[in-house]
Specification:
The complex is a heterodimer. Chain A has 24 helices and 13 strands. Chain A is of the alpha/beta class. Chain B is α/β, with parallel strands linked by helices. The relative contact order of chain B is 0.18. The chains are: A alpha/beta, B alpha/beta.
């Protein structure tokens, strides 16, 4: 990671540009609504969905509370099965380990399965600096890589691009003169391009959806078959995994392999799940490395309230139901983890010092839809509010005189005085009632002056009624 | 101990200082009441499996073992399969005479290019799950190593009716022992390879076999 602190743009600023892009809003709106409806159908068909969510939550929560023990057990199991385990404190260390392993094999190309963790550590760039090309093999990741773009969704990273845009990209980058914009033809073009690469690949790089402490089994869940290619055909396989992805027992899959596909791709089961345990003679890679990555995860673990964020299985259901994500898309979050889960994960991984990162917990209306769909019951709104509290506390501590005179701070101080005493509260109501007359139209305030306009710029305010309940009650007794 | 490992473990220890040393790992399985065992009859389970596999746009047929050779012959003709990959242990008397079998075995494994240039592969399976229309391979007899069912564009899989369980947990339970002992690679296949990466419109077939055919053999 770069030592120089670069400030990320705030969510509010980034979102504005994306909100103006009607094509993008159409693409994202269509995608999120389609998958949202499909998810509901396959979830509703399970009578024990809530029990499965409870179990998923319980297993993950228990794992986090004993994370060190499970990691040590995982290490032992993988080594016993013929794999090699590496530990990386941060992105830089992980990249060094992986780059070193690839260089040892004297190759200048590696095939990759889609992995957000490798995006998080900037692995492709680190490899490129050493002259190694990391070839993305997931269709959407390939699109994003060829376009020199960034992923915008956890599950479908190229969701912001439509078929016409993809056709133009493939025509240029894959040297296709004739190509239709039918998804079948575009997928075929990618198949032909990547097939040669798979057959000659010496090194494969993957992420991991789960790894079982008890047996050392690693799982990759996917649809296209590129995951199977990368984890089966090369001689050497390198897997990068966040330390929170460990699960205790093989049997835990009976819960997660029901929760994940239905929440993620909205299928009963996604086309391919690969489970491998170390190396198997005569079948698949004969050399297997796994890199266990911290990179801020232990900071998340240290926050008792925020800890549940680590339970995430990266299904992306929360993105698809989020009214904010649906309108801005993933790029506005300026993070590899977009949407509601990103709004709580990114600030905890990176810290709240960066203004852009600290703006993420505010990228929510706190409607709670994300919590309702989360397959492991992460209470995202609760963590959002918790993080907002931390941000305000931070400001109060470090802001000095300037922040003491900030209108919001003064406003909150006054309000807390008014709310603390009933006489003062009633007096404040009276003042507000006469003060609002200038701005009220048919019981609605749609334009307030000065600092308060920040509120009414984006929503109407209901005017305070002419009489409160208490006033009416007193009158009635007279 | 390696420095990074030591530091990560001590960071975790500090982070978890709120967790009492006496914290017992709760027995998750006795507490949770999701379904672990289905309640359908054997025949209903097979029907459900056939229905769910078909929904993935795979071809699926329920046949008697005596019809097997003839059905395979017809399928291979339709799919234009001549050059067929056959894993070790696959019953030779099931194969129709019209194809050219290419046998893979540990002593002389077929190359990736040979697999790529074949017309298809035929295998048995280790288990199947009706609830999700999933076939499970564990690289055992009649299935072969993983690459065999990956590189050919057409996969015909033979499932015995008594190999089908109803629910996902029943499926995982069956492999608990072998995973702990031999640890074979396990692959779940639910329909042909697919993508929804372009405008979420589903395309059957990207890198794995684009055509999946499943033959369910009725119990004798």
């Amino acid at each position: 990671m770069s030592k120089k602190v670069e400030q990320t743009p705030t969510f509010e600023d980034s979102a504005k540009a994306y909100l103006d892009n009607t094509q993008l809003r159409r693409n994202i709106g269509h995608a999120t609504h389609t998958i949202r409806d499909k998810r509901k159908d396959v979830v509703d068909e399970l009578p024990d969905w809530e029990a499965l969510r409870e179990a998923g939550d319980a297993i993950k929560t228990q794992t986090m509370r004993h994370l060190d023990k499970y990691l040590l057990q995982l290490e032992e199991s993988i080594q016993e099965a013929g794999g090699q385990v590496h530990w990386a404190r941060d992105a830089e260390e992980a990249n060094q380990i992986i780059t070193g392993l690839v260089k040892d094999k004297k190759v200048n190309e590696a095939v990759k399965v889609k992995s957000i963790t490798t995006d998080e550590i900037g692995l492709n760039k680190a490899l490129a600096e050493e002259g190694i090309q990391a070839l993305e093999t997931d269709l959407a990741e390939l699109i994003v890589q060829l376009a020199g773009d960034e992923p915008s969704h956890i599950l479908v990273p190229a969701i912001h691009k439509n078929r016409a845009e993809i056709r133009e990209l493939f025509k240029e980058k894959l040297n296709k003169n004739e190509l239709s914009d039918r998804p079948e033809d575009l997928a075929e073009a990618a198949r032909l391009y990547l097939r040669k690469k798979f057959l000659n690949a010496k090194v494969g790089i993957s992420g991991a959806n789960f790894a079982v402490a008890e047996t050392g089994t690693v799982a990759v869940v996917e649809s296209e078959g590129n995951g199977r290619m990368c984890t089966t055909l090369p001689d050497t396989l390198i897997t990068v995994m966040g330390i929170e992805k460990v699960i205790p027992r093989w049997r835990d899959f009976e819960v997660f392999m029901q929760l994940l596909p239905r929440s993620s791709t909205a299928e009963r089961m996604n086309p391919y799940n690969s489970f491998w345990t170390g190396v198997t003679e005569g079948d698949g890679p004969q050399e297997f490395h796994i890199v266990l990555l911290d990179n801020g995860r232990t900071k998340v673990l240290a926050d008792e309230m925020g800890r549940q964020t680590l339970n995430c299985i990266r299904c992306s259901a929360c993105l698809n139901v989020c009214p904010v994500y649906e309108r801005t898309g993933g790029h506005a979050y300026n993070s590899v983890y977009p949407g509601p889960i990103g709004a709580i994960l990114t600030p905890q991984l990176k810290g709240l010092e960066d203004e852009g990162v600290a703006s993420l917990p505010y990228a929510s209306s706190l409607c709670g839809a994300c919590y309702e769909v989360c397959p492991v019951k992460i209470n995202i709104p609760e963590v959002l509010v918790h993080l907002r509290g931390k941000i305000v506390d931070e400001k109060k501590r470090n802001g000095g005189l300037k922040s003491k005179f900030e209108p919001e701070h003064i406003g909150m101080k006054l309000l807390s005085r008014a709310f603390a005493n009933s006489k003062r509260y009633e007096r404040a109501q009276k003042i507000a009632r006469s003060g609002q007359k200038l701005f009220t139209d048919e019981g609605v305030i749609s334009k307030l002056p000065g600092y308060l306009s920040k509120w009414t710029n984006t929503r109407d305010l209901k005017a305070i009624p002419d009489q409160t309940f208490r006033e009416w009650w007193r009158q009635r007794n007279e | 101990m390696n420095e990074a490992k030591q530091e990560i473990l001590s960071r975790i220890e500090v982070a978890l200082k709120d967790v009492p040393k006496t914290d017992q790992k709760p027995d998750i399985y006795s507490q949770q009441d999701y379904r672990r065992q289905g309640d359908r009859s054997a025949d209903e389970i097979v029907d459900l499996f056939v229905e769910r596999v078909a929904e993935y746009k795979a071809t699926v047929k329920r046949i008697d073992e005596s019809e097997l050779q003839q059905v395979m012959d017809a399928s291979f003709a339709v799919q234009e399969v001549k050059n067929l990959i056959v894993p070790p242990g696959f019953p030779n008397d099931w194969l129709p005479d019209t194809i050219h079998p290419q046998h893979d075995n540990p002593e002389s494994p077929l190359s990736h290019d040979e697999l790529d240039q074949s017309d298809g592969v035929v295998t048995t399976c280790a288990l199947a799950v009706a609830q999700t229309g999933t076939i499970i391979l564990d690289a055992g007899t009649g299935q072969g190593r993983r690459a065999l069912t990956l590189l050919p564009d057409y996969h015909l899989c033979i499932v015995r009716a008594d190999q089908i369980v109803e629910l996902v947990p029943e499926g995982f339970a069956r492999f608990e022992e072998s995973i702990k002992n031999e640890g074979p690679p396990i692959t779940f296949i639910s329909g042909p390879s697919a993508t929804s990466d372009i405008e979420l419109s589903r395309v059957e077939g990207v890198h794995g076999p684009r055509r999946l055919e499943v033959l369910v053999l009725n119990n004798k």
